[in-house]
Amino acid sequence: MRVIEAARVHAALPYAGLIERLRAAFRRGGEVPLRSHFHIDVPGSEAGGTLLVMPAWQPGRHIGIKAVSVYPENPQAGLPSVIGTYVLFDARTGAPKAVIDGVALTLRRTACASALAASHLARADAQTLLMVGAGSLAPHLIRAHCAVRAYRRIEIWNRNRARAEAMAEKLTDLDAAIAVVEDLETATRAADTISCATLSRAPLVHGDWLKSGTHVDLVGGFTPQMREADDAAIARAAVFVDTRAGAMREAGDLVQPLHSGLLKPDDIRGDLFDLCRNQAAGRRGDREITLFKSVGTALEDLAAAEMVVEGRAA
């Protein structure tokens, strides 16, 4: 059984290639039970931690399972807020084939799932990308989005400006102007695509700020208590999700509007299965506001892990 560390995972998963691998995975499908979600009490911590266990398999191919811990206060101790491990098994025998760095796998597949959605939902002529948040996922989201649209300007907003500036310095190889912004409202009003990767419990993106034709990509919130966009954004947008079962159960950006009656299940126009199989129309016009809510699915992990193992075998 091989152990594949983070650097090799990143090298094996180029953004454009993984986006197409995910597209093929959603067309093909697989067995993906809802992930198990456990709160972990931490002495002296108000936030505590979260343990996620995510299995998926395709008969005759592979079984995969990811165990991820999410500890929001970890950065204060110099640790990432998300830590995890992925194990890939042979589905014909049950024998383990590889243990893969789960953080690197998650960063790449999450970013590429958002870019996959954007390939259907963002305007073809989108020029300005706003990144809300400057955590470990943010640079991967930026690079993945740039793999599907030719952005000329990338703006970064974060509560801690220094973190945004440090991230901007690592993106100078991109063929786009990079700027750190302080006024989130002004940046939101100008953006063609907005990607959010925060752990916020209060909305950051307001629907009244969105211009016609904007695509909103919500990635960070993964519990019913988290919000990155307000009700006005949900009401104005054509809403899409990665998976209906996961997003409608776990994502506060949808759970709360569903509970209040602002959003009905039938208002969700499609998921990544629908989009990739051409069973749901994506963007319907240049003036339509689109919104994609991602909570992650183990099918993405499985597709990425297979790609990593194939790359290592080659």
In short:
With 314 residues, the protein is of the alpha/beta class. The protein has eleven helices and 14 strands.
Tell me about this structure.
The structure is a single chain. With 314 residues, the protein is α/β, with parallel strands linked by helices. The protein folds into two domains: 2-105 and 299-313, ornithine cyclodeaminase, domain 1, CATH 3.30.1780.10; 113-297, NAD(P)-binding Rossmann-like Domain (Rossmann fold). Helices cover 35% and strands 24% of the residues. The protein has an eight-stranded parallel sheet, with helices on both faces. A six-stranded mixed sheet has the order 1-6-5-4-3-2. Strand 3 (49-57) and strand 4 (62-70) form a beta hairpin. The longest helix is centred in the middle third of the chain and has 20 residues, at 102-121. The chain starts with a strand and ends with a helix.
